[in-house]
Structure formats: C-alpha cells, structure tokens
Here is the input.
Amino acid sequence: MIQIKQVVATCMAGLLLAGLALLPGTTYGQTIPSLKDTFKNDFGIGTALNNAQFEERDPQMTQFIVRQFNMATPENIMKSALIHPKWDTYNFEPADKLVQFGKKHNILINGHTLIWHSQLPPFMRGMKSADSVRTFFNDHIKTVAGRFDGKVFSWDVVNEALNEDGTMRKTVFLDYLGDDYVTEAFRLAQQAAPNTELYYNDYNNEQPAKRAGCIALIKKIQAAGVRIDGVGIQGHWHVGRVPLKAIEESILQYAALGLKVMFTELDIEVLPRNFQGAEVSQRMTANEQSNPYTAGLPDGVQQQLAADYESLFKLFLKHKDKVTRVTFWGINDGNTWLNNWPIRGRTNYPLLFDRNNKPKSAFYKVVALKN
Ligand code: G3I
Here is the structure.
C-alpha cells in the first residue's frame, strides 16, 4: 500500500513539474521575471514579430510574448514591398491581424516603416520619372498611414535616410524628390495619421558624424513646422564593442531637441564581422572561422554579452526620463535575422533568450538592475 502511495506521489510530482515547465513565465519549475513588468515604471519593452508569432500559431510562444513584451514592431509585413505589392493593390491582411493581436494582448504596435529605400515593391524598380516616384510616395503614405491611424501607436515614418558621414543616402527618393523628401514624408504622415506618433529611425545614428546628420534632418523637419515625435536608434551592436559613450551623448542630444528617444531594433551579435551597422545589402563571404559557435556559446562570450546588456540597461535606466522604449529585434536566438546576415546559415546568439526561450545570463543581469 505504502509503495502504491509513493508511486502515485512521484507521478503527481512529475506531472506538476512538467506542467510548471509548460507554464508561461516559468522554465523547469522556476519563475522567470517579466521584462515588461520589471521596467514598467521606466520604459516600454518591445520585440519584432513575424507572421507566425502574431498569428498565434504556437500558443506557448504567444503566452511567452504576452508575458515579456508590451510593445511590438512587425519585422517585415508593413514594409512597402509587402503591404503595397502593386500600384493599385495593398495587402492589409497581415497588418490587420497584427493590429488585432496588439489590441487583444495590450501590446502597442510601432508601424515599420513608411518610407525606406529597401524592400520596395517590384514596380518601383527602375522607376525613372519624378512624377511616378511622387505619386507612389504620396499615395503610399496617405493610404497606409491613414488606414492605421490610431490603430498603431507610432510609425517609423522614414527609415535609414542617412549615410555614415551624415550626408543624405542616395536613394530613389533623394534622386527624384530632392533633399526635402524626409520633411515631406513627415508632413504627409502628420496629415494622414494625426493620432499616431511619428519617428525617424536609423542604425549607427549614435555615431558622431551620422548623429550630426540626423540632428540636422530633425531640425529641418521642426523648422518647417512639421511634427516629429521621436528618434529611433536601432542598436545593432557587437559584443564587447557597444559604443556606450556615443549612445549616452546621443540620448542627451536627441532629447534636447524635444524628442522621445528609443532603441528600436536592439541586438548584440557575437559572430565575426568586419563592419558595424545593419546595411542589408552588405554581405560577407563564409570561411572556416565565420561560424565558430555551432556547438554552443563559450562561457567567456556569454559573460561579455551579459556585461554589455547590463551596461546598456544601466544607461537606459539612468536616462529613463528620455528613453521611452527598448525593442529587441526578435524574440529569441532561434529567430533572429542575424542567423542569416551578413552570411546565411550561421548560429548567432544576440538576444536575451535562447532557442528554447530560456533566459540567458544577460537576461538575469538586466532584470537584476531593478532588484
Ligand atoms: O518572404 C520571403 C520568402 O518567400 C523567400 O522564400 C525567402 C528566400 O530568401 O525570403 C523571404 O523574404 C525574406 C524576408 O526577410 C522575410 O523573411 C528576405 O529574403 C529577407 O531579406 C528579409 O530580411 C529582412 C531584412 O530586414 C530585409 O531588409 C529581415 O527579416 C529583417 O529582420 C530586416 O530588418 C531590418 C529593419 O527592417 C531595418 N533595420 C535593419 C534591420 C535588419 O536588417
């Protein structure tokens, strides 16, 4: 009899442990703190979402997302190639689903992005007339920003308009619409989306030369009497080389313009790379050294990654009156774009959660800052 009771008790304990492991916010019976709750009095915590995630294809993933994040940015589906595939055709269905997801789970959506030279629709390729570019530009902003006004919390109105030296990047928009196109984009967005915050977003715009160009761009928009509410620093950095000084100077200088400052695509990559930033057209050739951690991340790198994230969040907390949002570019190391860029098929580890959504040392360092 005693033996039967012991077997039953052991089975019950096993079931309980298995159940706990499946609960959102727990892993192997241990409760995991929630990022959004940890920083609820400081800034929003966001993530990039792909279709599978906002379509809730995996209920456990949904629970995980909803527990950890209160803001989200679509990784691809609102880019012009996808939302506006033909001259007179818009595909709003995925974005509508995303908006529904946000509403259902109290997650604020940042629209990404209205005007970007990359991932343009095929009909924009080889476009050679100012009239056509102007027509696309006007129609696209009015239609997309208008449709989602008040449904998304904010828009990255213009993305990556600057070169590293702070000059304007040569794009189809600069070529045909001239220097003022960024201001014009914000003017159109302001008209179409009066209930939505409007941001300029870029990578490396914490670096002094690019930052100076970014400040000049913002001042130009403001001088034209056009609304701009915030600036996004994407934050695609490299382990052991996070530019903390430049980031702090940037927070102070952007905030001094009266803007909200946010970190919009945060990840810290650990694999070899011979350049900094996120220029998607830039690629590297694979060699024997380019994918060193397929069997796991060495402890030394894991600890450096944790130290980098800790220093970054210390800085964000120091300036929490100016920093309104910190968004990670992906949920876990399994679904980061950095597994496929600038070399396809690598094993990268840039985020706070591993491939099973288990917190890494970096996660614990970050949440410990509030305990
Ligand atoms: O959807 C197609 C699929 O049909 C096709 O089979 C497959 C083959 O390659 O490609 C799929 O499209 C890919 C798309 O992601 C969706 O997964 C594109 O090739 C790929 O280039 C695209 O990459 C995205 C990249 O922007 C493109 O510009 C990344 O997911 C996305 O993380 C990345 O995000 C950008 C931000 O928007 C702006 N800042 C930099 C950041 C990182 O590059």
